[in-house]
Design brief:
The chain has 199 residues and is an alpha/beta fold. Helices cover 39% and strands 20% of the residues. A 7-stranded mixed β-sheet has the order 4-3-2-1-5-6-7. Helix 2 runs antiparallel to helix 3. The longest helix is centred in the N-terminal third of the chain and has 12 residues. The radius of gyration is 17 Å and the shape is globular. 28% of the residues are buried.
């Protein structure tokens, strides 16, 4: 089976959905602001390399039990669904979206857009805590082959805004690689972009 891989944040949409959702919740559920100092402390610890990015993400969504979860997520996408790039809506091949954003946030837009497969960071539906690894970098490839047998699929085109973090999925493309910049698709040749560090 032929398929295309898409990153989500700043690729299919022009924003980081997890970060924007935190802001949305702070605005619509003001009691969450009480948790803001904890997030800021976590950010400082991450920038000082005391904790990892994944550990910081665990901190970011600890406010999740404090909000009406389904209503918050639906309200968020009611506001932002129109920002999905038109070129994604016109996709023609089996589409796999692989993202580091939370499953509780992306499940809703997955249903609305109707693409075939979503792989993202898993969170405890009660507490918001991350389950397993953050779906980023090599973890995206691991999750893909956890879902599909290697011999059963051919990755054709790959789309992402991050040349730095999404090299592992760009390396899978048998067709075209697209670097997404400000919503525009910029085709590139893998070997030319990564020629100084080819494996």
């Amino acid at each position: 089976m032929e398929l295309d891989i898409y990153d989500f944040d700043k690729t299919i949409v022009p924003f980081d959905s997890g970060t924007l959702f935190v802001g949305y919740c702070m605005l619509h559920y003001p009691w969450c602001i009480l948790y803001l100092p904890v997030i800021l402390c976590g950010l400082i610890l991450m920038l000082c390399r005391v904790i990892s990015f994944t550990q910081f993400k665990r901190i970011c969504f600890m406010f999740y039990p404090m909000i009406p979860k389904k209503r918050a997520v639906q309200g968020f996408w009611d506001r932002h669904e129109h920002q999905v790039h038109d070129w994604f809506k016109s996709r023609r091949r089996y589409s796999v979206v692989i993202s580091a954003s939370p499953d509780f946030l992306l499940d809703e837009i997955h249903q609305r857009l109707g693409f075939e497969k979503l792989l993202c960071t898993l969170h405890d539906p009660r507490t918001g805590a991350i389950i397993g690894e953050n779906c980023r970098g090599e973890e995206k490839v691991r999750r893909l082959y956890e879902e599909f047998e290697l011999e059963d699929i051919e990755v054709v085109d790959v789309y992402s805004d991050s040349l730095k973090f999404d090299r592992p999925i760009f390396a899978l493309a048998s067709g075209k690689c697209y670097h997404i910049v400000d919503g525009e698709k910029n085709e590139f040749i893998y070997g030319e972009v990564y020629k100084d560090n080819m494996e």
